[in-house]
Amino acid sequence: MWQCIPVVRRQFPRWKDFGPLLARPPRPSSRRERKLSWDASIWDLRARAQRRAPKAVFDYVDGAAHDEVSLARSRDLFRNLEFQPRVLHDVSNVETSTSLLGAEIAFPFGFAPTGFTRMMHHEGESAVARVAQRTGIPYCLSTMGTTTPEGVAEAAPDADKWFQLYVWSDRAVSQDLADRARDSGFRTLVLTVDLPVGGDRRKDARNGLSIPPNLRIKTIVDMARHPAWWWDLFTTPPLTFASLSSTEGTVADAVDELFDASLNYADLEWLVGYWDGPVVVKGVQTVEDAVRCVDSGAAGVVLSNHGGRQLDRTTVPLRLVHPTREALSDRAAVMVDGGVTNGADIVAAVALGADACLVGRAYLYGLMAGGEDGVQRATDILTADIVRTMQLLGVTTLKELNPDMVRVP
């Protein structure tokens, strides 16, 4: 039996039908913002950063120690997590704020301390601090930074400013740095403890990334391929590493010469008594050490293997979050870093028991890609991911997140 197939009536297309399809999106205020708006992920920003920055600079940010096993494992663990969402929950309004070390922050992450930041882009630490101030999250300035505590305070007076401290062989230097940070309005002191000696960062050695920079033939060739980066370098205030002015060689060489390998718990207890505010210990890699740090007076710990840049093949910090939270209960803040590349990673860490994540490479990719605008783009990507992931998990506050929502392989 034949079936009658209805005929679709066609009409000649009219311009008004095309108009809505051709409407231009809102135009960003600058050419740089327009380019960055096409970057939908941190990995997109990484690709743009790799095109813009010289190889030695990009590799310094992107690389890790030895065979880079720790970094790969951290990223793989986040990638292989399984979420278990709840359905039929009203998620029309999501609250992402939380309390961290006695202050309210808008999202459960902060900007980790990174060294030589003006090498990535001439706007450097000041640009990062301004984005943190606008977003309502903490910014941690490194001892190895290229902007002074006073400079960061001037750039972002209202930011929640933390100062990361390495303890030097000359303790008077460390004390002076802490004093300057406190006088500049830095609230939290972050003691990094996983750097008794420098890690084996092979990419830096191969690229000649030393202090001062070693301009080899290949470096000069690379200069010609990245004229914008070099123009910014030579037409802005000199790139100086004040903390390392008395040494030469690779970054690892400087660490071996200047930093104190005898650092111990007695030093932590002294620092807790000396600093007016919270002291956080960064670089903790066992539950037992986390408990002992808190017993020694630390207000918080950062579970961290230095982004895989020190001892390779260490435990992935994310695996330590849940047992550390169980061991510490509510006695101290628990933070984690390493391998965070999107907001879903941050939500997973909070669900497992972290108060917040510290993000390093993600915002540095943005900085290399487009200065302050690039850091803002990286931040917008992360914050949008956090909100979306919470909605898809069926929660409206961070307190509703729990370990049952995340399956760790």
Report on this structure.
By secondary structure, this protein is α/β, with parallel strands linked by helices. The protein has a single domain (38-205, 229-407), classed as TIM Barrel. The protein has 18 helices and 14 strands. The strands form 4 sheets. An 8-stranded parallel β-sheet has the order 4-13-12-11-10-7-6-5. Strand 6, helix 9 (171-183) and strand 7 form a beta-alpha-beta unit. The radius of gyration is 23 Å and the shape is globular. The mean pLDDT is 89.
> How does the overall form come out from the CA principal axes?
globular
**CATH architectural name:** Alpha-Beta Barrel
Q: Structural class, from secondary structure content? A: alpha/beta
What name goes with the CATH superfamily? Aldolase class I
In what range is the share of β-strand residues? 5-15%
Low-confidence stretches: none
Largest sheet, if any?
A: 8 strands, parallel
Average pLDDT: 89
Summed up, the helix count is 18
Helix content: 40-55%
Tally of structural domains: 1
Number of strands: 14
Rg computed from alpha carbons, rounded to a whole number of angstroms: 23 Å
Give the class-level CATH name.
Alpha Beta
Enumerate the strands of the largest sheet in spatial order, edge to edge or round the barrel: 4-13-12-11-10-7-6-5
Distance between the termini: 58 Å
Per the CATH scheme, the topology name is TIM Barrel
Topology:
Elements: H1 15-18, H2 31-36, H3 42-52, H4 55-62, H5 69-80, E1 82-83, E2 98-100, E3 103-105, E4 109-111, H6 117-120, H7 124-135, E5 138-141, H8 149-155, E6 160-165, H9 171-183, E7 188-192, H10 202-207, E8 210-211, H11 217-225, H12 227-234, E9 249-250, H13 251-258, H14 265-274, E10 279-284, H15 287-295, E11 300-303, H16 317-328, E12 333-337, H17 343-352, E13 356-359, H18 361-393, E14 406-407
Parallel strand pairs: 4-13, 5-6, 6-7, 7-10, 10-11, 11-12, 12-13
Antiparallel strand pairs: 1-14, 2-3, 8-9
Helix pairs in contact: 3-18, 7-18, 15-16, 17-18
